[in-house]
Amino acid sequence: MTTNHAVQRRIRGFTLVEMMLAAALGALLMIATAQSAGLFATTVAALESDSADDIDRALARIARDVRYAWWADVPSATRLRLADASGDVSEYRLDGTDLLLELPSGETGVLAADVTDVTFEVINSITRYRDGPTQSVYGTLAQCDVPSPDKTYAMGHTGMLGLGLTLAEDAGEGSVTGVNERLVYAVPESLELPIASSAGFSGQVVLTLSPSKAHGDARLKPGAAALGSKPLGLAILPLSTIDLTRVTMSLLGGLWKTAVCHAGVDTNIPVGDLAEHIAHGDIPTCGSEESFDVFSVPTINSNLAFTMPNVQLYPGVGYTLQFTVNGLGSISLVAAKSRSKAWDIVKRKEAGDDVDRLDREFPFVLRGTRVITTTTETAVVASVGLSITSAAGETRSGSSSVYNQVMAPDPWTGVVPGETGATP
Description:
Elements: H1 4-10, H2 16-51, H3 54-67, E1 71-76, E2 79-83, E3 89-95, E4 98-102, E5 108-112, E6 115-144, E7 151-155, E8 160-166, E9 170-173, E10 180-193, E11 195-199, E12 204-214, E13 217-220, E14 228-233, E15 241-242, E16 251-252, E17 255-256, H4 271-280, E18 295-296, E19 302-305, E20 318-326, E21 330-337, E22 345-348, E23 356-357, E24 360-361, E25 364-390, E26 395-401, H5 403-406
Antiparallel strand pairs: 1-2, 2-3, 3-4, 4-5, 6-25, 7-21, 8-20, 8-22, 9-10, 10-19, 10-25, 11-21, 12-13, 12-14, 12-20, 15-18, 16-17, 21-24, 22-23, 25-26
């Protein structure tokens, strides 16, 4: 018969001493296994390092540096220069049988020894544009072409004529094919237009440049001061004549009825007063704007000195060129009916009057010195090919792209050699 004590003895577990001994033995086994694995890994790494080829490692190093360079330059087949975003330059070069790497600090080390040949070449390049120094060029600043001017416009000492003008920014193609230069600013020097003195040689015609209200609106900008003015004696202008074919006169009660069609006002004046009225600029008129004017202006353009060295005109900004007369006399200009309804030509009959739109256009050419941009063109390295040959005759070749260049296809972006990360 089995007793309870015998059953309990058969199912009893490990004692505390046994458990402690088993734990100690397990720990020793794990330590031994870990040491063995570490020794194995160290041995494999050492074997791999000993068997690594210097040329392969050098090729991989150069390819990586090319990819992450800010810009690359290949001065010769055995030299490669790479810059980072700060502008610091590292250089790879062959010196004897050593492939050297010179760091920005000036430290130089051997990247691969026993090398018989190294070749760096530009596989692909990208064009970059930059603004170079500005240049000054004499030329046309603004002009108005009138196909068939068939009218004249006369103005006396009480009137004002304003021509609106805006300088274009496009300065035309420069030294780089397909790239138009831009106007930075301009200095007016001369004005060419058909203008004549109607009467009176003691007066002056005054040319004044002022900011206009807006582009295409010759009314003066409120509160803006004139940029400059130039008085010219009427005596330097050719003399206009009265065209009898444009004037109808009839004897009526001892008075000459003079029909001078200009401003739309009927006026009867004695013939003896005609010269005095003309001399003062009071041009009597009748009819409508469609009628012919009284004066005949020589078709030869007058070239007026209009130098204003301290005045700078900027593209896209509206300006008004005003004509006024000081003293006795008046002026006449060749004109044609306006082809638009804009306020680009304005007039004022009397001082203090409101400015009105004038349904005329006048041929003129404003010339002067244009300060324009100069675009430079640079071909930058986009990808580099490289090959290295060892003394044993083994050659390794590869290529790498400069990511900073290929990711910026716009010619005005990216960088060129010499630029740093602060350059757009």
